[in-house]
Amino acid sequence: MKETPLSNCERRFLLRAIEEKKRLDGRQTYDYRRVRVAFGADYGCCVVELGRTRVLGQVSCELVPPKPNRATEGILYFNLELSQMAAPAFEPGRQSDLLVKLNRLLERCLRNSKCIDTESLCVVAGEKVWQIRVDLHLLNHDGNIIDAASIAAIVALSHFRRPDVSVQGDEVTLYTHEERDPVPLSIHHMPICVSFAFFQQGTYLLVDPNEREERVMDGLLVIAMNKHREICTIQSSGGIMLLKDQVLRCSKIAGVKVAEITELIQKALENDQKVRKEGGKFGFAESIANQKITAFKMEKAPVDTSNVEEKAEEIIAEAEPPSEVVSKPVLWTPGTAQIGEGIENSWGELEESEKEDEDEVGSDEAIILDNIKMNTGVEVFTSGNQDAPIVLSDSEEEEMIVLEPDKNPKKIRTQIISAKEEKAPSRKTVKKRKKNC
Amino acid sequence: MEEPMQTESKLCAEAGADSGSLVPGCSLRHFACEQNLLSRPDGSASFLQGDTSVLAGVYGPAEVKVSKEIFNKATLEVILRPKIGLPGVAEKSRERLIRNTCEAVVLGALHPRTSITMVLQVVSDAGSLLACCLNAACMALVDAGLPMRALFCGVTCALDSEGTLTLDPTAKQEKEARAVLTFALDSVERKLLMSTTKGLYSDAELQQCLAAAQAAAQHVFRFYRESLQRRYSKS
């Protein structure tokens, strides 16, 4: 789906509003949108909302051999994905320029700033280290993806606990969550990105642009900073020229914003930890606001299954025994045979069907031989064969089994029709597919 | 008839005691649903069953690529995204099951030459994932206001080695189970729309699971109804 273009009218309106120091969502120039952090039931899972922009973060770990040039360091891997859910213009499985830019910025912000102690992730030097993987999914795109993603990444990393390991000689023992308490990662500091949008060649500046503002902006400045006011990354894009004063002013604003956000993150993390310790309820179910009219919860519901057995017996008693005819192969012409009515082929293109030995076909052999004799003699469709094909003709050619004409008829290629999902509408879809072809 | 009933209820009680206080044998975990939580998609819903959670977003009916255009109905596309890593064969298979279920219910003929895209994001998997995906998909379709013949829901049953039936199993129960069966049922006639199974079971057990799923579907549809009643209430 294509993105809806922004009309000139809207563009002019937005720019004029910015000139008058007004924003569409009623914020002031330096206002950041509301940040909300929610944690999932398992460690290292969080959802960060920045206004209506929403990012899901999940951290996972794995024991892998280290990189040869860094034998004592663990591996950090970041992967931001722009799901089609976030905006219709994002195509699944395509590395767009935006995605590459965001991923690289994220890596610079989090890996190159050395916020995670990678040396503590080493288990056996040169042999086994932890690989920490951070998966970020954009769920809803309302501008400023990078800020939301950087917050989600650092929150997920701070929330994550890896399984404990012990090394005795050459033996590495991995403990499950039940055996030993999992260990948190050692985090030196929390870099957080803050974005500034520039308009009219840098005359006007807005903090935390939303999607509409991003579309009309001339340039973007992203500053990654931790709460000690140390700049981790700075990137200016869009090709605008900024004055020294402007950059310094932005870094000052970033410092204030980062302090606020770090405090919020820490509070959220403490809260979650407290709830877990006390054995209270946690997870996403708890983060859904009860008073919202669009949300609804239901407590655990007992289901009465006492009469299930009777019902099943009834149905089985009523059901007719399956017809025996199905398993007999039908030979259409010399070279083409069919077994059963078949279901819709779920494997796309028909590949080399598996060969089966004669003993599998067993008792049906005689019939096949008879049919072949009959057919080779007459060469045309016999009337006996004709009434069957009409009934079965709505199954596709995929179910037809091709026999090589000069081969011994005993060696029959059969296709295993897997007893897969027997969907109710399967027949319908078959018909429709035919129409398309 | 009395005896088997008693033994079954006893078995259920035992299963409940085994798995701790989490889920007794025949009950559904706590449900939660939030609709319209994303601003970009036309319809969205997040569905939680216990700790399993799925977020769904629906776009449509919208413009369709010429190559995917169907002249007499809407093109339904389902994308399922795993939480970790890239989508694999398991996701493709589930996508297909969900798409076939939706196609049976959505009245695509009313919107020919359009596309309906559904994106499902696994937020956390703690068992009965496919059932949760189906439920989230249905709520998102309702939120998007697409015309449907009926609502649908997904129910997962697990059979353990003793033949005890568990509804809405957790990940641990699924792992220990001999067979796991997932059904999609429609709301009008409670008929089967889709079924997918894993493991060994007899035909009697299949019918039992189906009957249990139909009983559980009553609760799910009641949950749908109540949550929509709340949503469209005036107060």
Automatic annotation (TrEMBL), chain A:
Signal sequence, renumbered to the chain: none
Tree of life domain: Eukaryota
Pfam families found in the cross-reference section: RNase_PH, RNase_PH_C
Database matches in CDD domains: RNase_PH_RRP45
Phylogenetic lineage: Eukaryota, Metazoa, Chordata, Craniata, Vertebrata
Protein's name in the database: Exosome complex component RRP45
Subcellular location: Cytoplasm; Nucleus, Nucleolus
Gene Ontology CC annotations of this record: cytoplasmic exosome (RNase complex); nuclear exosome (RNase complex); nucleolus
TrEMBL record, chain B:
Domain of life of the source: Eukaryota
Subcellular location: Cytoplasm; Nucleus, Nucleolus
InterPro entries cross-referenced by the UniProt entry: ExoRNase_PH_dom1, ExoRNase_PH_dom2, ExoRNase_PH_dom2_sf, PNPase/RNase_PH_dom_sf, Ribosomal_Su5_D2-typ_SF, RNase_PH
Cellular component GO terms held in the UniProt record: cytoplasmic exosome (RNase complex); nuclear exosome (RNase complex); nucleolus
SUPFAM superfamilies attached to this UniProt entry: Ribonuclease PH domain 2-like, Ribosomal protein S5 domain 2-like
Molecular function GO terms recorded: DNA binding; RNA binding
One Gene Ontology term from the biological process aspect of the record: rRNA processing
Cited Pfam families: RNase_PH, RNase_PH_C
Domain Exoribonuclease phosphorolytic residue range list: 28-147, 151-215
Protein's UniProt keywords contain Cytoplasm: yes
Xref: Gene3D superfamilies: GHMP Kinase, N-terminal domain
Coiled coil: none
Keywords per UniProt: Cytoplasm, DNA-binding, Exosome, Nucleus, Phosphoprotein, rRNA processing
Keyword Phosphoprotein: yes
Assembly, per entry: Homodimer. Component of the RNA exosome core complex (Exo-9), composed of EXOSC1, EXOSC2, EXOSC3, EXOSC4, EXOSC5, EXOSC6, EXOSC7, EXOSC8 and EXOSC9; within the complex interacts with EXOSC3, EXOSC8, and EXOSC9. The catalytically inactive RNA exosome core complex (Exo-9) associates with the catalytic subunit EXOSC10/RRP6. Exo-9 may associate with DIS3 to form the nucleolar exosome complex, or DIS3L to form the cytoplasmic exosome complex.
Family of the protein in this entry: Belongs to the RNase PH family.
Protein name (record): Exosome complex component RRP46
Native species: Erinaceus europaeus
Chain's gene name: EXOSC5
